[in-house]
Design goal:
Blueprint (H helix, E strand, L loop, with lengths): L3 E5 L3 H11 L8 E5 L2 H11 L3 E5 L7 H11 L6 E6 L4 H9 L4 E4 L4 H12 L2
Parallel strand pairs: 1-2, 1-3, 3-4, 4-5
Helix pairs in contact: 1-5, 2-3
Length: 125
């Protein structure tokens, strides 16, 4: 079964940057998926079952906290690793991320090398 990474951000340039950062994983059989808002992300998580999700916090329709909470608490999907991405790095936000079940919290602008390294270790490469 191929591993999938879902990139969720309403900003096209952030999605593009993450895709570029992670594209070398495609050579190792990883499929990259993208979503532009929380509702779309939730549908894709249910249907595609990604191993890893990069989830923006501030988005239309449904924010990242709501998506994460729905996946972890309501749907109870345990084996999806969720990394919250946000421009807001306050402790309060980090705590809220933990409260809704986020596995990791990264602030923007992020270091592409760190994103790639984290992805590799999470996916077991």
């Amino acid at each position: 079964m191929s591993k999938k990474i879902l990139i969720v951000d309403d900003e096209p340039h952030i999605r593009a940057l993450l895709e570029q950062t992670l594209e070398e994983l495609e050579d190792e059989g990883v499929e990259l998926l993208t979503a532009v808002n929380g509702e779309e992300a939730l549908e894709m998580i249910k249907t595609e079952k990604p191993s890893l999700v990069f989830l923006d916090v501030m988005m239309p329709k449904m924010n990242g906290f709501e998506v994460c909470n729905t996946v972890k608490e309501e749907l109870g999907i345990p084996d999806v690793y969720i990394i919250m991405l946000t421009a807001k790095g306050q402790e309060l936000d980090k705590q809220k991320g933990k409260d809704v079940g986020a596995d990791l919290y990264m602030t923007k602008p992020f270091d592409p090398d760190e994103v790639l390294d984290k992805s590799r270790s999470i996916l077991g490469f």
